[in-house]
């Protein structure tokens, strides 16, 4: 398990020659699927940003990430919204704190839990992440109101 806060700032090295691609600025999340999809890498004095698809990351360890450098033919990366620091709202608009960190499995890219100012949220409650907030289900799956019969 890795924490988002521990990945930020790690060096990113190219597979093969080990050249430095930059440092991790952020991780892009698809909240609906509960996965990390991309790594935002900052490099150079001008802090140019490149984006690596998580599937191109070979190794995610405590001291570095190793992956394929992005090619010019790479698909357009999805829009990025920072998970860390996001407000947390239920689908009903109820405020549920702020995201402090998130734990994910570096092998599968699956988010295991989101740590908030109001406690830990299981990943299955995530619905979406946008500019305004992380939106979650009000209740865990299987613990909601029974479905109407008929």
Describe the overall structure.
This protein has two domains: 2-67, SH3 type barrels (Roll); 87-136, PRC-barrel domain (SH3 type barrels), CATH 2.30.30.240. Helix content is 3%, strand content 47%. It is built from one helix and 13 strands; from the N terminus they run E-H-E-E-E-E-E-E-E-E-E-E-E-E. Strands 1, 8, 9, 10, 11, 12 and 13 form a seven-stranded mixed beta sheet that branches. Strands 5-4-3-2-7-6 form a six-stranded mixed beta sheet, with no helix packed on it. The radius of gyration is 17 Å and the shape is elongated. It starts with a strand and ends in a 14-residue tail after the last strand. Residues 143-150 have low confidence and may be disordered.
How many domain regions?
2
Number of strands: 13
What is the oligomeric state here? single chain
What is the CATH C-level name of the largest domain?
Mainly Beta
Report the structural category: mainly beta
The overall average pLDDT, rounded, is 86
CATH fold group of the largest domain: SH3 type barrels
- Helical fraction: under 10%
The number of helical segments is 1
Could you give the distance between the termini?
44 Å
